[in-house]
Amino acid sequence: MNFLSRSESKIFDIPTIKIRPNKTQPRKIFDDDKLRDLSRSIEENGILQPLTVRKVSQSEYEIIAGERRLRAAVMAGMARVPCIIVKCNDRESAMLALLENLQRCDLGLFEEARGISRLIRRYGITQEQAAKKLGKSQSTIANKLRLLNLSYDEQDWIVQAGLSERHARALLKIYDQELRKEALSKIIAQNLNVSQSEELIERLLYNSSVPEKAEKGTQKIVIKDIRVFINTINKAVSTMKLAGIDAVCKHKDSGDYIEYTVKIPKATTN
What we know:
Distance between the termini: 38 Å
Radius of gyration: 24 Å
Oligomer: single chain
Order of helices and strands: EEEHEEHEHHHHHHHHEEHEE
Number of helices: 11
Low-confidence stretches: 1-7, 212-216, 220-225
Largest sheet: 6 strands, mixed
C-alpha cells in the first residue's frame, strides 16, 4: 500500500459527491444525535482529521476511514472534504476499512463481532492473527465471536434494551433457544443488572434440570429434563461452528418424541 502523493502528509480537497462508502464497513447504525453533534463541530472548526480514501476510477473515490466524518460534513453543507489518498487494491482496502473500524471503541457489540467474523472468513486468517492485528488477546476475540451464537432476534432485543456484552455472554450459558428467550424477556422486563441476570439464568438452568416427583414418590422425567440434553446437543454444534466446521442441526417435534439431525460435512472430519 502506498500514498499516491510524494509526501504522506499531502492532503487533497475532494468533492463529497465523488466519494462512495466502503461496502465492508462493519458499522451499520449511525447515531443521528452524535452525527448532528459532529456536524455542528465541523461547521465551527472544520474537519480536524482528514478522511482516508482510495481512487477507484477517474471520477470516484472509496472511503477507507472516515464515513462518519463524511456524513457529518454533508450534513453541515460542505461540498468538499480533506482526504489522504492511498493506493491499494480491493483486498487491502477492505481489510484496512475493517481494521480501522474494529479498532474504534464505539462500535456496537454485535457489529464488532460480525466485523471480526468477516475479517477471519474473508481473508482466511486465524483468531490468533486477527487478535494480533486488532491488538487484542485471542480469548477476547473468541468471546466476541461467541456472541454470534445468539439469534438475530436476540441480538436485536439486547441492542434495543441497551444491555451490555456481559449480559449477552451470560445468556450464552443457555443453549436451549426457548429457555434463553424466556431469560432474556425477564431480564429486559425486570431491568436486571448483570449479577441479577446471572442469578436468574442459574435458577432457570437448575429448574430445567430438576425432575418432578410422581404421585407414588418415584421420579418422573418431564420436558424440562429433556432441555438438558437439547442444550448439550446445541453446545456441541456451536463448538463445531466456532472451530470452522459447518455443522447443521435440525430438530422436529413429532408429538411423542423430538427428532434431532446433525449433519457434519465429510471434508471437515478428515
